[in-house]
Amino acid sequence: MASRFKKVAVLSLFLGSLATAILIIFFHLTPSLFVDIQPTSPECGNVKNLPCQIQNIKPSIIKQQQNDIRPIRIKLLIFAYRYFEQLSMSTTNLISLLSLATLLGGNVVTPYVHHSRMSGVPQGIGRNRKLDDVRYFNMSLYFNLEGVNQMLKQHRYAPLVSYDYLTSNCNKTLDVLIHFMFQGSMANKDAKKWYKINNKILQQAKNKLAENEDGWTLCPFVANANIGQQLGKFDIKRYVCVDPTKFQSVEKFSKHVIRDAKCVGFVQWKGIGNNRAWFNLTRNRYIKPSLFPHNERLIAIAKTFIQRYLTPRFIAVHGRIERLLIGKTFEIGNRNVRNCMQLLNRTVHTLRQQHNIKHSFLSTDLADSGSDTIYNKYYEHEQKYRKKKELYRMAVAELSQSHLFNASFVDENNRSTLNDNGAIAIVEMQIVSRADILITIGGGNFQQWIIDLYMKHHPNNPKIIPICQNL
């Protein structure tokens, strides 16, 4: 009997030692399992909270990752061919894609930029609306990418990876290319154009999506977009259409659509919201575009302009004039703009006297570097550019003694940086956000970005004056 107990004790000791060894090896080899347990929370003042204890451990793991040139154990790469909308909204959409990728345990491929728009491929997605030049630039033209990735890691997002990383690590293969079947006439028109299909084929795909409770169906016609060819003769294993309204759960999307894929492509990413994707991305609230650090060269250009033309103090105006034109005829829109500019002129004159400020600066979407939708939406094709020019001249004429940004004012060695409208928009954003007093017209996401930066520069005594809200 004693011998029997002795054998049991020895066996127990051996099993205990073996379990301990396995745990040590497990924790040593798989730190990445603990990198994304829970998003950063302001409630972590109480370190007894388990998620907060995990967050306190996390910085040492992040430091280990930062020492590596390439991300550790990337399980999934997400590449988006098209990004919807212009600078502020495309950046917002990029943030939601980063959030989705993080929840899926993956990384997003850094997009390229061109005149405030984004594309997944360096050659872009088609002819620019205003210019013949279709060359896209590295996103570092707009943002400090090292700073962006540091910010993402700080907020517990997976960092961006380069386009070259995609081409060298996916073995020239996308496991799945996904088309989100958005609703509406414009979405239907785009799908038929991109894939060279008719109404019948498109409707058949929609019918299959409606019948499939899992929310997806195979769509071979997506191959007609030739995205694999544009990636450099990539092979694409599956072409899938997805009903975005059936995927609020990221886990469901991973299980039914992503499955075991390592390299995933989205034909178009429109972000989250009505007639966009419906994923529940709670971590989205932790990041907004104003946290993306701008290219330091663009910031320096803005500071130099202020020093030369706007010191010691100045009033800045940001006008989203597009909002005064929505749903209006040219005549009514013209009148709205004129009335607003007259009010603006009186407001600036009063503020100059009250605060003893000599200079003012005007930034508006009517300028050549402004919105490219302002004349596509509201005026006939053959007249749209001329109409926009007329409005801009009138707005400037009504606002006396205001400075406008012009690339010709910049040192010659910096002018090549400003061949892109998005780069100019960022310079103007940096100028406006450093004003002593900020006047806003029209609202919108780009203007909110400016306000967020202004609040960073003036945390204690901000002076923001919205006008023309009732026009």
TL;DR?
This protein has 471 residues and is of the alpha/beta class. It is built from 16 helices and 15 strands. It has a six-stranded mixed sheet, sandwiched between helices. It has a four-stranded parallel sheet with strand order 13-12-14-15, sandwiched between helices. Strands 4-3-5 form a three-stranded antiparallel sheet, with no helix packed on it.
Structure explained in plain terms:
The structure is a single chain. This protein is an alpha/beta fold and 471 residues long. Helix content is 44%, strand content 13%. The protein is built from 16 helices and 15 strands. A six-stranded mixed sheet has the order 2-1-11-7-10-8, sandwiched between helices. Strands 13-12-14-15 form a four-stranded parallel sheet, with helices on both faces. Helix 10 crosses helix 15 and helix 12 runs parallel beside helix 14. The protein is globular and about 65 Å long. It starts with a helix and ends with a strand. About 12% of the residues have low confidence.
Quick one: biggest sheet?
Answer: 6 strands, mixed
Helix content: 40-55%
Quaternary structure annotation? single chain
Query: Total number of β-strand segments?
Result: 15
Helix segment tally? 16
> What is the strand arrangement across the widest sheet?
2-1-11-7-10-8
- Mean pLDDT, to the nearest integer, reads 82
**What is the 3D shape?**
globular
Low-confidence stretches: 21-72, 127-131
Beta-strand share of residues: 5-15%
Q: By helix and strand content, what is the structural category?
A: alpha/beta
Q: Please compute the radius of gyration using only Cα atoms.
A: 27 Å
Distance between the amino and carboxyl termini: 96 Å
